[in-house]
Amino acid sequence: MTLAAVARPNPGYGAQMEGDEPGVTAGEATRDDAREDVAVLHGGVANAGAVVRVGGHVVRPSNAHTGTIHDLLRHLHDSGFHGASRPVGVDPDGRERLVFIPGEVPVIPYPAWSQSDESLASVARLLRRYHDAASGYVPPVGATWSDEMIDHGVPMVGDGADQIVVCHNDVCLENVVFRDGIAVALLDFDFAAPGRRQFDLANFARMCVPIDDETSVRFGWRPADQGERLRIVADAYGLTAPERETFFTILAGTIAAGGAFLRRRAAAGDPNFVAMWQSTGGEARFDHRRQWFEQHAARFRAALG
Ligand SMILES: Nc1ncnc2c1ncn2[C@@H]1O[C@H](COP(=O)(O)OP(=O)(O)O)[C@@H](O)[C@H]1O
Ligand SMILES: [Mg+2]
Fold it and tell me: 52 lies in a domain?
């Protein structure tokens, strides 16, 4: 979910290779906001203006699922996956505290480097590594997840149940830290919930190929061979032939359901989402995208091989 802002490097940029551990460890920074420079971090809509960097930490609003999300994130780090936010804890005022991850996070208008095929493939590879790490996670008794972006097509038993992991559910460029154009970490697990791997990958592809009509130009996307980029996502993730089938079916479903989350938040009166809904064309934008996708669906399916 995005809000127009200016491209901004995360201070503390350090050259590390894909998969390296972010260079800040939990507990390194002080918890005393008053003694540190506090900088607002832009990039999101849900918590716009409320995410701040305090030294080596990020402090942001928590929610009913924060305890479960921190449990997941701790499991990932303990099992050797370091490409995700690392929790420090919850402050006395209720805000969550995470380790700041140095690098660059693209915001609208997306810089050219973040639109490259290499960057796209690197996010798909990172998502694969995340899913593989998350597949070993057993949520604790009483775990709760957001249902706002949840995969409603989850088969609980039988065929496909082995494809269920805790999906991130919001892999847009604003939620990825890059170094030298390569994705190194996923941020913002607020919408994480159990679902099919291909569901997470399809939503990422929709937002970052992007699978969108010409209105995506207003977000800064430059014209590209979208079929080729869709194939790059599937190849970089390592989808098998049958998985491509599921992937495409889910992708078509997310386009058909287009805008449901934004519509709900805007209808509920959330000012950040009302502004976004209005400034991006509201219902008409999603109607147009649905029609556009129907015209091009066969081409996208063929591109996947
Ligand atoms: N752990 C982190 N390390 C580095 N940057 C971060 C971190 N968490 C958030 N940010 C920055 O803050 C922005 C907004 O944070 P995010 O958690 O995505 O909030 P929102 O819920 O509003 O989308 C991100 O787009 C990113 O630029
Ligand atoms: Mg975000």
Answer: yes
Q: Is the CB of 100 within 6 Å of ligand 1?
A: yes
Write down the residue that tokens 């976004």 correspond to: 276
Please work out whether the CB of residue 106 comes within 6 Å of at least one atom of ligand 1: no
Whether residues 122 and 226 share a domain: the answer is yes
Instruction: Supply 51's token pair.
Output: 């995410």
Pick the ligand that lies closest to the CA of residue 61: 1
Q: List, for residues 99-136, the tens digit of each pLDDT value.
A: 999 999 999 999 999 999 999 999 999 999 999 999 99
Report in angstroms the alpha-carbon separations of 276 from 2, 110, 171, 279: 8, 17, 18, 5
Residue nearest to atom 23 of ligand 1 (CA): 44
The pTM for the full model equals 0.88
Kindly report whether the peptide bond that precedes residue 109 is cis, defined as omega within 30 degrees of 0. yes
Q: Which of 103, 123, 151 is the last residue of a domain?
A: 103
Residue in 122, 160, 111, 135 with CA at minimum distance from that of residue 237? 122
pLDDT at 291 over 80: yes
Total domains in the fold of the chain: 2
Which CATH number covers residue 211? 3.90.1200.10
